[in-house]
Amino acid sequence: MSTPQNIPVQPVLGIGFGPANLSTAIAVQDRGLLEHCHFIERSPGFQWQNEQMLAGADIQNNPFRDLVMPRDPGHEYTFIRYLYDRGDLTSYLHYNAKFALRNEYNGYLNWVASHFDDHVTYRQEVRDVTVVQDPAGAECFEVRTLDRIWRARHLLLGTGRSPNIPEEFGAGSPRVFHASRYLSSMARLSDERAALRTVAVVGSSQSAIEIVLNLLGRPDVERVVSIQRGIGFRLKDTSPFSRRVFLPEFIDYFHPLPLETKKSLRAQLRAVNYGACDQDVIERLTTVQRDYAQRGSDRFALAPFSRVHAVDADGDGPLTLTLADINNGSTSTLGADAVVLATGYRDFGTDADDEQCHPLLRSVRDRIGVHSDGTPRVHRDYSLDFAGPDDELSIYLNGLCEASHGMGDAGALAVLSTRADDIAESLGARLSARRRAPAGLLRVS
Fold first, then answer.
1. Are residues 14 and 62 in the same domain?
2. Which of 251, 276, 405, 408 is most open to solvent, judged by the fewest CB atoms within 10 Å of its CB?
3. Phi, psi of 315 (to 5 degrees)
């Protein structure tokens, strides 16, 4: 693909248009800055957790912590306003559930996203991000998709985190897939009329238990095996004291801490959000498990204290998993027709499940300031420490900053509105500074 010289330079380009950048679109609109922003998204339309839109699944988040309500309760894009506009508010209040259904909240997000269609271009999967010079000699970002080139001064990276695929599953069998591709992968196997005598689910998270329950409800699946390194599904720490990690003031506390202190604190608080489940799904599964036991059925099996040591695939056919007990080292084998990896997502870090930088930023990595462990330095306003002319170029990480800003940034909905407000305020300052620059110093795109 050639590089034309007359590509316009967008002041702000958002990469990805999920809840993070959607909330930011609202915040910049409220500041009168939306005309300077455009967003690109790889999907054909707005999508949120489409691969895990399971019957009965909820959002595990107070629905009033929506895209905008914590910063403006009277805003036109609140969840309450969505319910009211569709004539469903009274019904929802009568429902009296702690959390909204995932499918219902997805309707809310799509409703809000539809108001920004003029500012989003879909079907744009980004391949690379580089720094180039525009015709006037000023630096700008060049973002390449399969069929188009975009240029911008400021980027909002809101793609979500990379799926964590443990090394032992990296061979690429079509029968092994991450939870982020669960529904489409199961549909593909069904279309192929693949036998699903045994499906293994690796992981102990909320996603893992939801998928186990969904598989047990499928008539085409004969047996489900849950593989976990612990003793079994654990209850999530839902104490209001622990869940302070999702408050904006905790971000202010966490961000200035030393690197090693942050790592220690994240490990200490891990059960608040990871490797644990809500009580309702645990109770559902134990009821199902008890029912199977009474019937003498082995349709559901738990493989505790186990890790997958190796995976052998017979072409596109069934798999053989070698399991190792993490306590005594004994090994066993398990035949499986499909393996679902509910193994989470990758954070910035140096552990085996981490990555040091977002894959889309590999070509500009040498311009990004890093900590002593090689991970990127991220300012309080979510912008990277990026080398270049002051405020001329910037990259904001929107929803990718658990390592620097704490667990509230771990893909959770809780801090969407306040984070969007922080980013919009910072962007506004940068754009204003550029407009105020002396005429002799201002390079016009």
1. yes
2. 276
3. 60, -125
CA pair distance 369, 378, nearest whole angstrom: 9
Across the strands, what pairs with 129? 143
Q: Are 175 and 199 in contact (CB under 8 A)?
A: no
Q: What is the mean pLDDT of residues 231-258?
A: 93
Query: With 0-12 CB in 10 A as exposed, 13-18 as middle and 19+ as buried, what is 119?
Result: middle
Closest CA to 262 of 412, 414, 423, 407: 407
Length of the chain: 445
Structure confidence at residue 201 (pLDDT): 98
Q: How far apart are CA 325 and CA 306, in angstroms?
A: 5
Indicate if 331 and 425 belong to the same structural domain: no
Where residue 52 sits, what CATH number does that domain have?
Answer: 3.50.50.60
Q: Which of 290, 316, 341 is at the close of a domain? A: 341
CB count, 10 Å around CB of 258?
9
What is the tally of structural domains in the chain?
2
Contacts with 232 (C-beta within 8 Å, 6 or more apart), sequence order = 204, 302, 304
Mean pLDDT of 161-177: 87
Decide if pLDDT at 445 tops 50. Answer: no
pLDDT tens for each residue of 178-223: 999 999 999 999 888 888 999 999 999 999 999 999 999 999 999 9
**Domain containing residue 357:** 9-162+347-436
Predicted pLDDT of residue 21: 97
The 10 Å Cβ neighbour count of residue 428 is 16
Crossing angle of helices 19-30 and 102-113, rounded to 10°? 40
In the three-class reduction of DSSP (H, G, I as helix; E, B as strand; rest coil), residue 309 is classed as strand
The pTM of the full predicted model, rounded to 2 decimals, is 0.91
Residue 443 inside a domain? The answer is no
Same domain, 73 and 50: yes
